[in-house]
Amino acid sequence: MKRVVILGLILALVSACCGRSEFKSSFVTLTDAVPDAILEIRYFGTYNFVGERIDGYLQPTALLTKEAADSLRAVSDDVRALGYRLKIYDAYRPQRAVDHFVRWAADVPDTLMKAYFYPDLDKSVLFQQEYIMEKSGHTRGSTVDLTLFDMATEKELDMGGTFDWFGPESHPDFCGDPDSGLYNPVPSPAGRLITEEQFRNRLILRHAMLRHGFKPLDSEWWHFTLKKEPFPETYFDVPVKQLQRCK
């Protein structure tokens, strides 16, 4: 009986390792592809809309499919020529992290970080308005949340709003048309605006991402997905940590 149990444990370990072979052969550590990218992985820390480290973030690193990482390297080369570096907030996100978001959103009284990320909203509307969903494109591995870092000022480029702000101020078409580039300062229901400079800063990032095969999201200026993503229907749940191959 003991030999059977030991054999079962060995087989389980082999299966767990090799069962992730597709992930490990298809994903890379983002900074291996884009060495000068700056990482501020918000869900590894506590400064995020939940206010605690999110399930599945074991190390403050970022993973992407090889295809998305290669395209992001081209984006990085473009913006470096303009005096910027890429700053990454999130990339691949395991399903267990999305599940954590769902549990948090269902706990309506927990509003620890409301003042920082959703001051104009009642938490009860987060599902209805699709700020929180049960599935995320990030879990397919070819989506990235990012901004630009200005090498001259040594600060983030001013985008007029913070990453993961829940509100219309985060929409790419807030105060302007991102396709034509025309600035149109119409305030949000809360009376907020961004300046023309902030609007145009968002366009620098957007245009660089679109030039290299990414598509935007209509509710978040920082969110982009590779158009030709290799896993359009696969939602992974491998934790975020430095990749190691099975021996």
Q: Could you please describe the fold and organization of this structure?
A:
This protein is of the alpha+beta class and 247 residues long. It has one domain (27-226): Muramoyl-pentapeptide Carboxypeptidase, domain 2 (2-Layer Sandwich), CATH 3.30.1380.10. Helix content is 30%, strand content 16%. The protein has 7 helices and 10 strands. The strands form 3 sheets. Strands 2, 4, 5, 6, 9 and 10 form a 6-stranded mixed sheet that branches. Strands 1-3 form a two-stranded antiparallel sheet. Helix 4 (66-80) crosses helix 7 (196-211).
Largest sheet: 6 strands, mixed
Bin the helical content: 25-40%
CATH architecture grouping = 2-Layer Sandwich
Task: Specify the CATH class.
Answer: Alpha Beta
- Morphology: globular
Distance between the termini: 28 Å
Which percent band covers the strand fraction? 15-25%
Order of helices and strands: HHEHEEHEHHEEEEHEE
The CATH topology, please? Muramoyl-pentapeptide Carboxypeptidase, domain 2
Q: Low-confidence stretches at least 5 residues in length (pLDDT < 50)?
A: 4-16
Radius of gyration: 20 Å
- Total number of helical segments? 7
> What is the domain tally?
1
Derived structural class: alpha+beta
Overall mean pLDDT score? 92
Secondary-structure blueprint:
Blueprint: H1 2-18, H2 21-26, E1 27-29, H3 30-33, E2 38-39, E3 63-65, H4 66-80, E4 84-90, H5 95-106, H6 114-117, E5 143-150, E6 155-156, E7 176-177, E8 182-183, H7 196-211, E9 214-217, E10 220-226
Parallel strand pairs: 2-4
Antiparallel strand pairs: 1-3, 4-5, 5-6, 5-10, 7-8, 9-10
